[in-house]
Amino acid sequence: MSALSGKKAAPARQTPVSESARAILDVAEELAQTRGYNGFSYADIAAKLGVTKASLHYHFASKAELGRALIARYQESFGGALDTIDQAPCTPPEKLRRYVELYDGVMRNDRMCLCGMLAAEYATLPAPMQKGLKAFFQLNQRWLSAVLEEGRKSASLAFSGTPGERAEVILGALEGAMLVARSYGNAARFHVAAQHVLEDLGVGRKSNPDGKGKRK
Fold first, then answer.
1. Containing domain of residue 96, as a range?
2. Minimal CB count within 10 Å: which of 13, 95, 140, 195?
3. What's 169's domain CATH number?
4. To which H or E segment does residue 34 belong?
5. pTM of the prediction?
6. CA–CA separation, 56 vs 65, rounded Å?
7. Using one digit for the tens of pLDDT, what is the confidence trace for 49-64?
8. Do 15 and 87 meet the contact criterion of CB atoms below 8 Å apart?
């Protein structure tokens, strides 16, 4: 996965866009999605890019600054994906299917949702990163709440509780299902769990887009 119209949480400063900074962020994002924030260092990034650690510090003075920029960029990218869903002529059930497909795509690339991965390390993260994570999850919950409210009004979705409460359940279920599926090395576990989340809302089942169980 790498926001909503009028609802974006503006980052403290713009994500760097230079080619060198983008390359650093790309490598750091891959490492964070597969190892976690505490599982890689500037030395790992420098080795993958074939540069010195000093060159990394030129763009990102500290790892904490790099982490904040990673989250800001990821939120911007994910928010853009949600905007794309909103702009398409989709019913609420189809919007939810496409939302789940965003997570499916990450799993098929043998990665985790960046913010879900970092949330597991929340207590050890710098305060700006913690703030960024909350903003990302709030963004998702607002979007889901809006879709659920629309679905309830059109009778295309059925659920108990408020849209906000159900949005929290959906987000928690999907992020948790990713963690469990990853521990088994089997993306199908996530897909099955996600389908049940959708079915609980009255959204019909769709087959696994890969037709296979193992992650790629």
1. 67-199
2. 13
3. 1.10.357.10
4. helix 19-35
5. 0.84
6. 11
7. 999 999 999 999 999 9
8. no
